[in-house]
Amino acid sequence: MKLLRNTVIRAGLEALYFSGAHYLLRPIFAGVGVIFMLHHVRPRRDGEFQPNHHLEVEPEFLRAMLAHLRTLDVDIVTMDEVHHRLQKRSFARRFACFTLDDGYRDNRDYALPVMREFDAPFTVYVTSDFAEGTGRLWWVSLEKAIAKTPSIEVPIGGTATRLETSTPAAKQAAFDRIHEWLRRLPGEHDLQREISALCTRHDVDESLIARDLCMSWEELKAFADDPLVTIGAHTVTHCNLARQSGETASFELTESRARIEAALQRPVQHLAYPYGDRIAAGQREFSLAKAAGFKTAVTTRPGMIFPESAGYMTALQRVSLNGNYQDARILPVLTSGAATAMWNGFRRIDTA
């Protein structure tokens, strides 16, 4: 299903490019700016089975986007400046803002050097448990477990289900099915229970993953000293906030902010919701983020920034720089707003 979805999206992006429709739609749907969403920035890994590849872009693709924005004479700004321009309705020039979720070490090693080439600021949203080395990146654990075995058994719907994983295509299909099942489990403890069981059966040490991939507090402290870097919050545990009680969700927001501020000795005013889609962040979460005092909060709902976004500072839309679509031809499509407009049925704001 995901393969079909990716094929359809790629075809849609190419259709917009080759038809030139993005030029016609740009004046209507480009908005006043865009907030780009990234996770990993690093060279392409070896291996056919890379189910989390959509979460990573190569440094050269990031460089190409930055160069493209410079040719458009777009201002590359901080999240503070996004907030300021929306609040003051200062839209004389279009802007772009780069945000990276989770706090991966490659943000320092590969993204920062590219951003320095363009003197471009960016925000990294840190999951505090990842920085402490105690968090669980379950989607990576799932990838590692499937990679190690020719078949895998999981209790989907309460029934033991064996999935064949002997080829890269079969592994991808199994990953997609299990990932969807895990995302729909009732609570975080259910998800973690199933992932831990898989890791135990297939000899994956999930406790090492955060330490291997994410910056520690000590590394983040040095990283945050760079004038181009803003650190934001991404909760304590990277949980689906919408599945939590109001008390727990509020704690995830306020405690993550407190831990980052204590460790880095700097204010944290911006938030990214984990997962950030409709089943993870809605009206309650938007209100909780506002009550917690965050100036802005970003979702993963696709969309550009429009003047009316000023009324939804804790429900801001982003445009994903997706590892599956690293083609320079789509850069003008992404910055035109045409792709997100079509995805949203030509609605400018999605906060329902």
From TrEMBL:
Which CDD domains does the UniProt record give? Answer: CE4_Mlr8448_like_5s (cd10968)
UniProt-listed Gene3D superfamilies: Glycoside hydrolase/deacetylase
Output this protein's name. Chitooligosaccharide deacetylase
SUPFAM superfamilies listed in its UniProt record: Glycoside hydrolase/deacetylase
Main function: Is involved in generating a small heat-stable compound (Nod), an acylated oligomer of N-acetylglucosamine, that stimulates mitosis in various plant protoplasts.
- GO biological process terms, semicolon-separated: carbohydrate metabolic process
The text of the family note is: Belongs to the polysaccharide deacetylase family.
Residue ranges occupied by any NodB homology domain in the UniProt entry: 93-281
Which UniProt key words apply to this protein?
Answer: Membrane, Signal, Transmembrane, Transmembrane helix
